[in-house]
């Protein structure tokens, strides 16, 4: 891309060409499954979560299934995802709330999602957008924070402020796609420590491009 200033539209257009099939990389069969997978994905790789949920989803299908076993049993089943005590508590407490307050169904609004334990705006936006097609926020993870700042699309530093800033700058229909594209490009090229700027589609236009620095553009 040329050296002119990057905009959200330009970035999305360019990255859609690079990652045409971009989507949520967590495997899921139901909104509850996606909620559980997203809770497990905190500080864990999606690959590991997908390995664990393969068996987990056979054993636990409804919110009540997670409450029918002991906390310790669930901890055992999700152990390899890390921080398993906290995650098991969050899953069980969320299931309790889903049964008591929402008739056993994962809720469909941001406000209600945020009443579930262990669910912040990022998790809620992923579940609502992916499982229900309800776009109520932009899931901002560490890839999003790093890339949006490097590309000069936001100057904000804090997760919540970045989300609000990007919600103003991005058409609502693209909120989820933007997040997925940032994750895909962050994993493939724009790594935290060693960004592969020479292989990046934004090598000539990104303010933080190492290629631009070398050529002095
Ligand atoms: S040019 Fe470098 S810093 Fe900028 S987005 Fe690409 S890989 Fe990241």
Output the keywords.
single chain; 217 residues; mainly alpha; Endonuclease Iii, domain 2; Endonuclease III, domain 1; 2 domains; 12 helices; elongated; binds iron/sulfur cluster
Topology of this structure?
Layout: H1 8-18, H2 31-40, H3 46-59, H4 63-68, H5 71-78, H6 84-102, H7 110-113, H8 121-132, H9 142-150, H10 159-169, H11 175-188, H12 210-215
Helix pairs in contact: 1-11, 2-8, 5-6, 9-11
Overview of this structure, please?
With 217 residues, the chain is mainly alpha-helical. The protein has two domains: 8-22 and 139-215, Helix-hairpin-Helix base-excision DNA repair enzymes (C-terminal) (Endonuclease Iii, domain 2); 31-132, Hypothetical protein, domain 2 (Endonuclease III, domain 1, Orthogonal Bundle), CATH 1.10.340. The protein has helices spanning 8-18, 31-40, 46-59, 63-68, 71-78, 84-102, 110-113, 121-132, 142-150, 159-169, 175-188, 210-215. The mean pLDDT is 95. Residues 150-151, 189-190, 195-197, 200, 202-203, 206, 208-209 line the site of iron/sulfur cluster (SF4).
* Unreliable stretches covering 5 or more consecutive residues: none
Average pLDDT, to the nearest integer?
95
Main β-sheet description: none
Q: Using the coordinates above, name the CATH class of the largest domain.
A: Mainly Alpha
Percent of residues in β-strands: under 5%
How much helical structure, as a percent, in the residues? Answer: 55-70%
Task: Summarize this structure briefly.
The chain is an all-alpha fold. The chain has helices spanning 8-18, 31-40, 46-59, 63-68, 71-78, 84-102, 110-113, 121-132, 142-150, 159-169, 175-188, 210-215.
């Amino acid at each position: 891309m040329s050296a002119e200033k990057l905009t959200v539209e330009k970035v999305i257009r360019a990255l859609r060409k690079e990652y045409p099939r971009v989507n949520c990389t967590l495997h899921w069969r139901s909104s509850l499954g996606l909620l559980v997978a997203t809770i497990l994905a905190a500080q864990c790789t999606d690959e590991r979560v997908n390995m664990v949920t393969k068996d987990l989803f056979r054993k636990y299908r409804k919110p009540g299934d997670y409450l029918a076993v002991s906390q310790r049993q669930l901890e055992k089943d999700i152990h390899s995802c890390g921080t398993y005590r906290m995650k098991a508590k969050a899953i069980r407490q969320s299931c309790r709330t889903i049964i008591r307050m929402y008739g056993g169904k994962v809720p469909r609004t941001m406000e209600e999602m945020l009443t579930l334990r262990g669910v912040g705006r990022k998790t809620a936006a992923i579940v609502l957008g992916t499982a229900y097609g309800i776009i109520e926020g932009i899931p901002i993870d560490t890839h999003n924070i790093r890339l949006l700042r490097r590309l000069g699309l936001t100057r904000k530093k804090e997760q919540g402020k970045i989300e609000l800033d990007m919600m103003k700058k991005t058409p609502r229909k693209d909120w989820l796609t933007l997040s997925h594209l940032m994750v895909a490009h962050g994993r493939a090229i724009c790594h935290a420590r060693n960004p592969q700027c020479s292989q990046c589609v934004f090598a000539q236009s990104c303010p933080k491009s190492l290629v631009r620095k070398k050529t002095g553009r």
